[in-house]
Write a structure and sequence with these properties.
This protein has helices at about 15-20, 70-75, 85-90, 95-110, 120-125, 130-140, 145-150, 170-190, 205-210, 225-235, and strands spanning about 1-5, 35, 50-55, 80-85, 115-120, 155, 195-200, 215-220. With about 240 residues, it is of the alpha/beta class. Strands 1-2-3-4-5-6-7-8 form an eight-stranded parallel β-barrel. The chain binds 1,3-dihydroxyacetonephosphate.
């Protein structure tokens, strides 16, 4: 089971340093835990016993792009995974599937594993359009990649309405969506792609969510901000 921690835009310097210190000496298998701090704190983390991820990447390679961070720069900081297409970026930064595809291409060219987030809004869920929305995001962002490239990619199913709300879909519903994602990806590209779930995962629901047969892991936001919580779920 893969556990990815998305710190989003949290912590000041001293807090991030303290968090990184708490994560020392975890001695997990390398690809069991991935910590995605804010860009500026990446160098605080020494990824031994866990892996380091970024929360985003630029679609540009390098040069005159003020404020951006490239895949090669992430790679030089030992980053091995990167979240792309998070709904907060799709919504607030107006990211499109085309842009997300370009970002994934940059990551793949630098041997960084993209974690592609997809998920429906509340309105889409209420209209019964969950699978349509999720498949559309997947197909638009993945089309054009080679089979070798596709084999590097992880999908995270994060219903937008479940992020930071305390609401979580029923386990059968998560299983249904993940199974359909896997079937569709296999049907289109003959690839078995891992799929994570994200959205209000916490100590009260993680044990039952873990039992979802099709699930390969979690993408966790606010619950991951306390190292004690992280340690408790790793036990
Ligand atoms: P929460 O766990 O805070 O709902 O956030 C989920 C998320 O967006 C992870 O990427």
């Amino acid at each position: 089971m893969l556990i990815v921690l998305n710190h989003k835009m949290n912590f000041l310097k001293e807090e991030a340093l303290a968090y990184a210190k708490e994560m020392e000496g975890l001695f997990l298998k390398e690809d069991q835990l991935i910590i995605c701090p804010t860009y500026t704190y990446l160098p605080f983390f020494e990824p031994i016993g866990y892996s380091l991820g970024a929360q985003d990447v630029s679609h540009y390679q390098n040069g005159a792009h003020t404020g951006n961070v490239s895949a090669s720069q992430l790679s030089s900081l030992s980053v091995r995974y990167a979240i792309v297409g998070h709904s907060e970026r799709r919504l607030f930064e107006k990211e499109t599937s085309e842009l997300i595809h370009e970002k994934m291409k940059e990551l793949l060219d630098h041997h960084i594993t993209p974690i592609l987030c997809v998920g429906e809004s509340l309105e889409e869920k209420e209209r019964g359009e969950t699978l349509f929305r999720v498949m559309q995001e997947i197909e638009e962002s993945l089309q054009g990649f080679t089979k070798d490239e596709l084999e590097q990619i992880i999908i995270a199913y994060e219903p937008v309405w479940a992020i930071g709300t305390g609401l979580v879909p029923k386990e059968e519903e998560i299983d249904r969506v993940i199974k359909r994602i896997k079937e569709q990806v296999f049907h289109t590209w003959q690839i078995e792609m891992p799929v994570l779930y994200g959205g209000s995962v916490n100590q009260n629901n993680i044990s039952s969510l873990r039992e979802i047969p099709s699930l390969d892991g979690f993408l966790i936001g606010s619950f991951s901000l306390d190292p004690k919580n992280v340690k408790s779920i790793l036990k």
